Amino acid sequence: MHTMQVIKKVMMGVSAAGLLAGCQGKGDYAGREYAPNMYHSVAYEPLTQITDENAGRWVNALDNGRGEYFNSNKYNPFHMNMRVPPPNTVRRTPNGWLPYRASNDTTSLRLANNLINPMDSSKAVLASGKILFETYCKHCHGATGAGDGKVADKFPGVANLKGDAYKMITEGHIFHVITYGKGLMGAHGSQVAPEDRWRIAKYVKSLQK
């Protein structure tokens, strides 16, 4: 019985060594790969459409019957991955609003005081504004807007939105500053949708009351 166990272990060791040796690569052979699709998958390129399924077949390491460079979505019309907007068109917000056209200068900031917030002062708007404020603003301005967020300890000068110097700013002013930034504050126009910027402005004014 003991001899059989030794022989069994020896055979298992030889088999394991053979399998490992088979995985080794040399020359132009990279060796066997586990889940090669994870290494060689070609993501769809949104604005390029290589519709020839044989393109790059000579460099394809997968046995999937197509070329390495093929990157189109054959299930969409014209093999398109993403439709390019027509020329001279402007993207609107979900509410149908056009982009905010003001410039990042002192004149536009002064004129922003005249902007009217299209959002109402309902509980729903203030509740969503609070969530957005806590997501984008709390780390600097603090939970109550007093300029005592965690980042304020590292960068003195964060605005205390409840201070006398800020109580008279309008919701349009807040919207403009969120869009373009001011002082220590960076621009958030690319991260926060216009509707959400107005919700934050509405909530900030509620904090100042």
Name its key features:
elongated, Cytochrome Bc1 Complex, Chain D, domain 2, mainly alpha, 7 helices
Task: Describe the protein's architecture and organization.
There is one protein chain. It contains seven helices and no strands. It has helices at residues 2-23, 37-40, 106-111, 123-136, 138-141, 171-180, 194-208. Helix 4 crosses helix 7 (194-208) and helix 6 (171-180) crosses helix 7 (194-208). 16% of the residues are buried. The model has no long low-confidence stretch (mean pLDDT 85).
Which helices and strands occur, and which strands form pairs?
Blueprint: H1 2-23, H2 37-40, H3 106-111, H4 123-136, H5 138-141, H6 171-180, H7 194-208
Helix pairs in contact: 4-7, 6-7
